Amino acid sequence: MTDLLALSVFGVDWQFLKPFIVIGLAFGGVYALSGVGLVVLYRATGVLNLAFGAIGAAGALIAYYLINHTSCPEWLAFTVCVMAGGVVNLAYGMVFGPAFARRDPLVKMMGTLGLALILLGLMAWRAPAGGAFARFLPLPSSEHRYDILGTSVSLTQIIAIVLAFAITAAASIFLRVTKLGTAMRALANDREITATLGVPVRRVEAAAWFGSGLACGAAGLLLPDLLTSLDYTALTFLVIASLAAALIGRLQSLWATLFGGLAVGLAQSVATPYASISAYRSAAPFVLAIAALLFLSRHRVVTVSRAGA
Amino acid sequence: MRSTKTMIGGAAAGACLLALMLAGWATGAQAPVGSGKASAKKSVCGLGTGKKATGTPIKLGGIDMLIPGVDFTTVGKVAKAYFDCVNDNGGIKGRPIKYILYNEQLNPAQEAALARKLIQTDKVVGVVGNTSFAECGTNWKYYKSKGFVVIGAGVQAECYSTPSFAEVNAGPRYSNIGAAQALIKAGIKKLAIASPDTISAYADGGAALLAEKAGVAVKVFPTHLPVTDATSQLIQMYQFVGDGGGILLDFTPDTAPAFMKAAEAQGIVEKVKWGSSTPIANTFMSGQFSPKWDGHLWIDNEFSNVDPSVGPDSALMFAVLKRYAPKIAPQAFAQMGYLAGKFATSALLGIKGPVTAKSYNAAVINLKNQKTDILCKPYYVGKLPYHIPNNTNIIVDYKNKDVVVKNGCTAIAAVDKSVAQTRVWEKKFNLNTGK
Asked: pLDDT at position A17, please?
């Protein structure tokens, strides 16, 4: 046991590494949560939503405003944060979804980038950063800390990890077992045929937009606590890590997305104490996504044809 | 009956009108902010006449950086607030100051273009209130070629090593040295320093050098902004310094709280001696943190405590902010803007003859012994190859969500030869000796 505790991982004492593993898994849980939302939406609508981070940040800012500038109780503000993610996502999907329905996936994705920029602009306008103030959105769960294997772990960190597994499991079961889930999977395969079979396409898509928005809202609630500050710019760009998780799941597999998210969070955090790679840890999402895509497509046959042959 | 009602209505209307007139008279009778006669106990804006300046505007300009995680525009905004106060108090011999403020996004091309726009297109006579991570380095040669000396708030090396700037603040390097000096005096054996990666080499270099000379193990942690993993970095720093070690944070109020909240969450506030450069030395910051921090902070403050009771300039700054920039909190960047505005106004008022770029910048160079309760020693410019007029600071701490002075005015350790040389010049040319 003593030998195990004295273990050195590439020159860094295991004891020193433990807190980074906890932090990484907690961040990874949030990336996974958001990534699963991205995959569910993509499978149902064909839209890769780049506005996930901005929507989560907007929900967090609304909660911050409610707590600090009104007499709204915290629990209600947190609920509003999660619901705001669902409502904003649903509103975008209902207004712009039909218009983009027959367009190329790239065009659909660029539409969500527009939403991200609009939300960023609105946040910068209504809640400018800077000055003598910093914004915080601490969760009451962070006041509860536990000593696990000699490392201090907060209840928020545990919630982030457990919630990621729970949502992934729930989404998997939902897509397999329920009628709505089956309809979503059918939509992913062929929208036209599914519509012909009498599936209410708009309603199914609305459910996907709203459900994935809730995941995004939950991520927006957890991240400011884990980041120890409510910086909407940082929150907006954390969509990159979620996107990497979704790509690791090839925009199909929820479980692969979950483990992809956890891997991204771990890689980013565990790289911190290694001076030689610490500066590059922000590249972890891209590196892992590319590595996973290369690995998963290793058995694919590349067909090359000559024009006119 | 009808006429009685009309009379009552008329009387009520008359009473209302009278009340309104009285209110108007009462408001009008209130002395405008910054008016009156300047004395040792009272500071005024410019001439302090209380009359609005109406002549041809005198143009001044400034460039402030605004990027995610760092907002330096407060400096320029408060300089403008001071000029607005001057304009409501007779201006510069009847002429108002028109202040043009541009923002830049840490982009050298943009910085160079804006400096040229100010001087060549806008035709400003002086540049005031600049603050940026990189603007000094980008524009110092251009300012020198045009004969401009900028009164601003510096960050990088060129702000304190070229003739083009005479900053009102000490800047992160000297403020970090002051904080490290205090931490070493408090008995730390190891020191971790974190600041934005864009300025880390310069900003942390002096404090690291001081620690090494004192036999204190030191490690620098350059931080990319905006911070996305404060907790990880904080744990890394804590693992290096251990219990009783020193952690020095050099961030603006946008970023420092992320580390401080992470320290609270990790339960290490009381295990470490915390140092910081100036930006978190204000009640708006201290009010955001738990009393756990009380007694554990050694914050180097380049200015006096942010408190209207400190002296006449501090009181006037609070009044100017309340009247002309109510959204800006009293804090170090507000003090910088106030001082930049005050000293630029002193230079303008000292001009005999027409106000031109040449006469204004000559007046700036002539500034010396500019006393203010916001600085430990008087401000000066002088015809020097570089300027470090702010080199004596105080150390403050948090107490019951307030900021309290821990150590009074102390000369920053002369780790850099330029600081030692500056003190020689100060005596030789009587720049801040009051003679």
From this structure: 86
